[in-house]
Design a protein that fits this description.
The protein is α+β, with helices and mostly antiparallel strands. Helices cover 33% and strands 27% of the residues. The strands form 2 sheets. The chain has a 7-stranded mixed sheet, sandwiched between helices. The chain has a 4-stranded mixed sheet with strand order 1-2-4-3.
Length: 212
Amino acid sequence: MVFQLDEKLVFPNPQLGEPDGLLAVGGDLGVDRLLLAYSNGIFPWYSFRDEPEILWWCPMRRFVIFPAEIHVSHSMQALLKKNRYKVTVNEDFEAVINQCSRLRIRHQGAWLGRAMTEAYMQLHEQGFAASIEVWDGCRLVGGLYGVTIGSAFFGESMFSLEPNTSKLALIHLARFLEKHGGKLIDCQFETAHLQSMGGRFIDYREYMELIG
């Protein structure tokens, strides 16, 4: 079942959604609604050119990376040892999200438009979204961003302008979370890239116990 949201700050039971994870349409991208959504494993994802309303998703099988299980290949280990790149945390969130948007904005189904970008900028300004930046000198060449609530990081998007720089960002994120008590990285959807980095499925009940 797909529910219609209105101005009330509430979401339906995620277990009543569609098999593909689609739960609801409508609502807004305000900070309070986004925090409520992510706290229940719900996230917005919609093609802003094609969809008149926001689509909210909550898959019952969650694809996650546990920080201690991040897979670092031999080639990535060699790249790390070279110390070619500098990696930072929250040094330029705006540049990261804007780069993620620019690289996909012309693609069919692009979802990171102005409304989404502004929403996550507001989350960042209030301390609920963070970025990892990868620098080649003074040039931003890779990175990722996501929502941070408690000990969970809800990944939103990543980019690479040079080979493997998004992987570097993800490895740095996992190590940072492991050092600071982070429990999991929510990848939202499975990809071969994230699977190769250690991603695996857990069920929604276990997921909620971890982020709760």
